[in-house]
Amino acid sequence: MLGDGRRWLTERVPNSPDGSTTAPPSTPNAPPPAAGIARTLARGLAKRCGACGGKGIVTGWGTLTDRCPTCGLWLERSNGMSMGSLGMNTIASFSSLFAVEVLGLIVTWPDFEVGLLLLVAVLWGVLFPTLFHTRAKTLWLAVDLLLRPMEPDERGDVRPPMRG
After folding, report:
1. Is residue 38 classed as helix, strand or coil in its secondary structure?
2. CA 39 – CA 22 distance, rounded (Å)
3. Residues 135, 84, 30: CA angle, nearest 5 degrees
4. For a designed S-S bond to 136, which of 6, 34, 88, 93 qualifies (C-beta 3.0 to 4.6 A apart)?
5. For residues 140 and 44, is the Cβ–Cβ distance under 8 A?
6. Residues 46-78: pLDDT tens digits?
């Protein structure tokens, strides 16, 4: 492992001829290996780069850097990335609103407090999407990386042509 936290720069080679357990990647611009579905999604939920897990891609509320400071991945991978994060935010917002309302019905059973349930629904419907906005962007980046794995030309100083 390198000191800068980029573990993917070397890959495990169990039976190499020289007896070492690591070998350099085949090309210097090789993308990191797939981290698995759960780890990639957890990185997105933690507001980290879905490819390498690096910190520092979020600069403010709702604002991402152009590239990951650790692996150099361009975060705007295609036209329409904001539409995907909007969809992710909508799905999470409605799912959580449904769960909160069901929980509210269970807690107030059998005498439903309609006013209280309505107040909770309105507050949750306004606050959750607002607070989840940045996390939805990084989560959508993780989903996009799972659907379209990173290619070597998506890293570096030159922006690749937009796809999609």
Report:
1. helix
2. 22
3. 80
4. 88
5. yes
6. 999 999 999 999 998 878 898 899 888 888 888
